[in-house]
Design the sequence.
């Protein structure tokens, strides 16, 4: 007889053992200023660790300055390692682990004008860059790939030095490494384009290099799409090829997500944006072009009804195809959902909105105080990534503006 695994059981992922299997998903906190963590960011992740998560994930740390998609985003560099130690120590003091989501935006840069052609798979017109005048892409040559690989490695090493327990290489949602995996962007004719095996070649090389550099000390995760959820994008079969290639490259765990930030946000969230909240927020921040473009994109999306565990069918197909540890993500709202994910053979459960709504959800599940999250998928938290005090659940108190200042121990 096999013993059932509980989501409250510890789990070992590569070099890391977590106290339980609940992971806070990387969800743009918008709590950094000038590329540095703020006091609000420390409070946010400390509260999640105090609330019981096994591991919390700091969203989107760019591997280079041009790898950012938004102007205040953190980019990894030696000068901020001491600041980041404040963040990691605060989480460790609460008994939690902390992961750094590292990535590069490539041609997906919605929040700032870069002033040079954006790196991507091929040269051409860049619809995703229209919001800030980043109209054209530049196809990456071998030198560019080597440089970006070195940047991922350096970012992972600095994350390790700053006390992070894991790095999560983001290969989904439309960022640079996803641009390679997705046929929407990848029209290369060399060994990095064409078949699904070729399209995942560069992301797998990046992961292998990161794993070789830091894999003895920190867990190396990759976040991938189970499908882009859009016509001509990567589909479930591509995702299976991707998962196999990353397993072979040495990934310690794959986090299964889906959708693209521009083309299929409804797929990523299993629900439509609350357009009124999004439009009001963007206008209040004078993000006129972004508001306009989001309106255009929103008009083309189907209306869908939220379903708990909305990526389950896709994720099951990947579970069948690989034996590398997998983290289930997408619409986990209740303890029953988490238990189901365990029964289906996933090693961890990753949550974003339910934990924004209630950072102490894991403790409340464990004590029996709550069986389910009160998050109603209004997705207002997504609009709040444009707020100067950072994201929040609109059913909770506002963030304290006094904490929107960098931790800044170093000048
Ligand atoms: C406010 C907000 C910001 C997000 N930003 C990111 C991000 O920076 N990186 C990322 O990988 N996913 C991001 N996501 C997506 C989540 O990680 C997750 O994939 C998605 O919310 C589905 O999980 P859920 O149903 O548990 O919320 C964000 C989600 C929210 C709600």
Sequence:
């Amino acid at each position: 007889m096999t013993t059932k695994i509980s989501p409250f059981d510890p789990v070992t992922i590569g070099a890391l053992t977590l106290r339980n299997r609940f992971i806070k998903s990387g969800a743009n906190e918008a709590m950094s200023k000038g590329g540095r963590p703020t006091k609000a960011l420390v409070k946010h992740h400390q509260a999640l660790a105090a609330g019981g998560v096994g591991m919390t994930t700091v969203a989107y740390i760019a591997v280079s300055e041009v790898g950012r998609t938004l102007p205040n985003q953190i980019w990894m560099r030696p000068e901020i390692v001491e600041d980041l130690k404040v963040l990691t120590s605060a989480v460790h003091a609460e008994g939690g682990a902390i992961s750094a989501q590292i990535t590069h935006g490539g041609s997906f840069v919605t929040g700032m004008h870069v002033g040079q052609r954006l790196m991507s798979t091929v040269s051409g017109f860049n619809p995703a860059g229209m919001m800030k005048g980043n109209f054209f892409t530049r196809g990456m040559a071998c030198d560019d790939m080597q440089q970006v690989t070195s940047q991922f490695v350096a970012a992972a090493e600095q994350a390790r030095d700053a006390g992070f327990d894991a790095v999560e290489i983001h290969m989904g949602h439309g960022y640079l490494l996803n641009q390679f995996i997705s046929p929407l962007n990848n029209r290369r004719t060399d060994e990095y384009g064409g078949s699904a095996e070729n399209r995942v070649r560069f992301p797998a090389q990046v992961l292998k290099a990161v794993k070789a550099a830091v894999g003895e000390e920190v867990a190396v995760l990759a976040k991938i799409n189970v499908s882009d959820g859009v016509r001509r994008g990567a589909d479930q079969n591509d995702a299976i090829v991707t998962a196999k290639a990353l397993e072979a490259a040495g990934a310690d765990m794959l986090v299964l997500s889906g959708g693209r930030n521009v083309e299929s946000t409804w797929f990523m969230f299993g629900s439509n944006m609350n357009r009124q909240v999004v439009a009001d927020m963007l206008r209040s921040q004078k993000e006129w072009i972004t508001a306009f473009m989001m309106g255009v994109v929103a008009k083309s999306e189907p209306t869908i009804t939220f379903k708990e565990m909305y990526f389950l069918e896709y994720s099951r197909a990947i579970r069948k195809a690989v034996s590398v540890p997998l983290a289930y993500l997408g619409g986990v709202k209740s303890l029953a959902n988490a238990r189901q994910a365990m029964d289906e053979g996933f090693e961890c459960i990753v949550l974003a909105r339910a934990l924004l709504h209630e950072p102490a959800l894991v403790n409340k599940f464990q004590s029996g105080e709550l069986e389910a999250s009160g998050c109603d998928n209004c997705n207002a938290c997504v609009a709040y990534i444009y707020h100067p005090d950072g994201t929040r659940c609109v059913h909770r108190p506002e963030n304290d503006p006094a904490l929107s200042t960098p931790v800044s121990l170093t000048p």
About this structure: The pocket of flavin mononucleotide is lined by residues 25-28, 59-60, 101, 170, 173, 223, 257, 268-269, 329-332, 351-354, 381-382, 385, 391 (CB under 6 Å). The longest strand covers residues 55-62. The first helix runs from residue 39 to 50.
